[in-house]
Give the backbone structure.
Amino acid sequence: MEYDDRKVAGALLFIASVQCVLGIIIAETLYPDYSTAENYISDLGVGPSALIFNSSVFLLGIIAVVGIYFIQRVFGSRLFSILLALTGVGAMGVGLFPETFGILHTIPSLITFLFGGLSAIMSYKLMKPPLSYFSVLLGATSLVALVLFGSGTYLGLGKGGMERMIAYPTLLWAVGFGGYLIGHSEEKATK
C-alpha cells in the first residue's frame, strides 16, 4: 500500500467505525435479556458488556480524532475537521462516562449524535456523487431521528430502535467515507 494522508485518514475512519459497530454487536450478546428496541445503546456501558462497549466507543472517538490530522492535511476544511473533532471527543466522553454518570453521559452522547450527523452532511463537499448524496441522506436521517428521539416519538421502533437510527447512519457513513478515502489516493485526486 502506498502511503498518503488520504489513505491513512480513510483507514482510521474505517477501522474506528467498523470496530465500534462490531463492539456494539458483541456487547449486545453479552448483556442478559438485552432488547435493541427497549434498551438504550448506552445500557451496554454497564454490567457484563461494559468493558467491550465503553472501550469500543472510546476507541471510535480517539481514532477519529487522530484521523482529523490527516483529513485536515488532505482537505484543509477547518469546519469539517471541527465537526468531526467534536464527534470524536463526544464519543470518548460516552466511553469514559457510562450512563450511570447522568448528565456527564448525556452531554457527550448528544454531542456525538449531533455532530456526527452534521459531519456526514458536511462531507458531501469532499466526495463525488453518488457517495456525496448518500452522505447527506445518512446525516439527515441521523439528525431527524435525533429530533424524533428527543421528542419521544419512536415510530414503533422503541427507544432503543430509534436511538440506533441516530447512531448507525453516522457509523455507516464513516465506513463509506473511510473506504472512499482509501480508494482515492492523492495522485488520483490531482489528475
In short: The domain at 5-183 is CATH 1.20.1070 (Rhopdopsin 7-helix transmembrane proteins). The chain has a mean pLDDT of 95. The CA atoms of residues 28 and 34 lie 6 Å apart. The first helix runs from residue 5 to 30.
